[in-house]
Amino acid sequence: MEKDVVIIGAGAAGLMCAIESEKRNRSVAVLEHAEKIGKKIRISGGGHCNFTNINVTSDKYLSHNPHFCKSALSRFAPHDFIAMLEKHGVKYHEKELGQIFCNESSAEIVNMLLNESKKSGIEIRLNCHISEIRKEDYFIISTNLGEFQSKSLVIATGGLSYPELGTTGFGHGIAKKFGIRVTPVKPALVPLTFSQKDISTFAELSGISINASVSCNNKEFLGDILFTHRGLSGPAILQISSYWNQGDAININLLPAMNVYELFLSKRESKMEIKNFLSRYLPKRFAQRWCDLYIQAKPICSYTEKELKGIAHKLHNWEIKPKETEGYKKAEVTLGGIDTGELSSKTMEAKKVAGLYFIGEVIDVTGQLGGYNLHWAWASGYAAGQYA
Ligand SMILES: Cc1cc2nc3c(=O)[nH]c(=O)nc-3n(C[C@H](O)[C@H](O)[C@H](O)COP(=O)(O)OP(=O)(O)OC[C@H]3O[C@@H](n4cnc5c(N)ncnc54)[C@H](O)[C@@H]3O)c2cc1C
After folding, report:
1. What span, in angstroms and rounded, lies between the C-alpha atoms of 263 and 269?
2. Is 373 a pocket residue for ligand 1 (Cβ < 6 Å)?
């Protein structure tokens, strides 16, 4: 079957690219190996799809080249995606930190993309397994559903996270086959795990959530941290995980909105034990355990000012060294991917291979938590759709 454009992967980036490319009267086929489209969109944002963020700027993205994403982001803004939703009557709302979610469910986004694709006559082939790709004057894609030929080939196969949804290293493999560099990859936006010793130390805290500020490698995020039975999760931990490397300690400010030393001084004469006093500001179970681990059990009035200063410092700078991450199984995204130096930031086309494009998570552009990753998928898909 001959098409102008073949897109591999019917996720956020692939579908956006297909819709845009078809608007230019290109004939488009999307080849998807799963039995349905947009599986990651469906589970995103806890089922409500945090599809963009009003604060999209390049500094919300990690990449070996932090400038690469600027061009695509400047041509597809959050309001462009919102306009598409409004056209289809999909209701949405803004939550904290500029995050925008669907009112009803993520499936509405998938249906919207499907309706746009159907209306345009884009051919979506599900359960399509690719056995070989080669390039002559055009690309030849051999699959279990027959052979496809196209002038443009767009790789939109995503990263390695959530393997149960059918993610593969396919895009990275294709890049390597065509001599295109891939930067090292690792799980990101992922819970961190404790060493065996820390698992036993903090086991009883599982389920406790604290609003804290977490920092590592000159990055800091304010948000909830959640103790799990294996380590730490919650938005602030997921955010910092993208900047954390094995062996690093993370620094947790347990009471970021307060000056704990001044608080202690205001209770200088109190006969209350610190763990009971701290239970006013931190979850009781956590305050008790933390104090049992790090400080002597005695009333505030029995401490010297130097000791109180030390305790306050530790509460503002609690260091903990995670052992590793929960891995791709629980990571929202993959850090790293197709080396941006290999691609045109305007078109997403490979510099070495005319007609070959990469879009979405497969590229070495990784967003922070909050709708930035889906926005990158839309923006890079839109960019390639203007040229592929
Ligand atoms: C649990 C979870 C929640 C998330 N929540 C959010 C959120 O709320 N907001 C946000 O911005 N981001 C979120 N993300 C991240 C976001 O979903 C991804 O960054 C985004 O979907 C990437 O889009 P993509 O099109 O590049 O890749 P994908 O959405 O992964 O799509 C790739 C497609 O390619 C297909 N494919 C793979 N290999 C092949 C192959 N060999 N042949 C044919 N097809 C293939 C896959 O089946 C898939 O359909 C979340 C991720 C997870 C795991």
Report:
1. 12
2. yes
Q: Whose CA is nearest to atom 52 of ligand 1?
A: 332
- Contact 111/13 with Cβ under 8 angstroms? no
Written in H, E and C, the secondary structure of 226-281 is EECCCEEECHHHHHHHCCCCCCCCEEEECCCCCCHHHHHHHCCCCCCEHHHHHCCC
Which residue matches tokens 């159907």?
118
User: What is the C-alpha separation between 3 and 364, in angstroms, rounded?
Assistant: 28
Residues 156-209: tens digit of each pLDDT: 999 999 999 989 899 999 999 999 999 999 999 999 999 999 999 998 999 999
If you take atom 22 of ligand 1, which residue's CA is the nearest one? 361
Largest CA distance in the chain: 84
| Residues paired with 188 in a beta bridge | 333
The best mutation among 52, 373, 378 to test binding of ligand 1, ranked by most ligand atoms within 8 Å of the C-beta, falls on 373
Mean pLDDT of the chain: 97
CA-to-CA dists, residue 355 to 137, 140, 197, 347, 362, angstroms: 10, 12, 53, 10, 17
- Ranges for all domains in the chain classified under CATH 3.50.50.60: 2-186+335-385
Predicted local confidence at residue 268, as pLDDT? 93
Residue at 159: amino acid letter? G
Nearest CA to 244 out of 325, 177, 319 is that of: 325
Q: Is 45 left (phi over 0), alpha (psi -120 to 50) or beta?
A: left
pLDDT in tens, 265-322: 999 999 999 999 999 999 999 999 999 999 999 999 999 999 999 999 999 999 999 9
Q: Whose CA is nearest to atom 39 of ligand 1?
A: 157
For residue 179, the model assigns a pLDDT of 98
pTM equals 0.97
Residues of the chain with CATH 2.40.30.10: 192-325
Cβ of 120 below 6 Å from ligand 1: no
Count of CB atoms situated within 10 Å of the CB of 180: 21
CATH T-level assignment (fold) for domain 2-186+335-385: FAD/NAD(P)-binding domain (3.50.50)
Nearest one of 305, 378, 367 to 81, comparing CA atoms = 378
Question: 192-325 in CATH: which number?
Answer: 2.40.30.10
